[in-house]
Task: structure prediction
Amino acid sequence: MPVLNFTQHRCTADQLAAGIIDCPDEFRDQLTNLLTFNELPTSNKVWRRAQQLAHLFETVAVHLGFDYATKETSLHAMIGGAPFLMSYLEGSLNDINIKVYHAFSRRESVDKVQEDGTVRKVAVFKHVGLYEVT
Result:
């Protein structure tokens, strides 16, 4: 089940190992710009942005070799971003028959010994799996 990372963050090593496909570099800026809101949006603007993202998903899928002639594909989407956008984006992707997932990560605490001997605690997010939006 190929899943496209459709978030503004690059895949982690764990996600790549799980078979998640990172968004190609030539589409990354457009994806990040569409996922980013610099001011409080109206619901209409959020809906339009979700529509643009769904169109971008189709473009990326075709670029990756997935056929959209029948509006069916085996490429799925892992999404993430502003919470107020997610339900709109889920709906827009479902409208074009794309299964939608959210990443599920576990936060692990790691102690890092610094050069001066002090210990710095760092949170590391480990990809555990995908949660399917139904």
About this structure: The chain has one domain: 3-132. The radius of gyration is 17 Å.
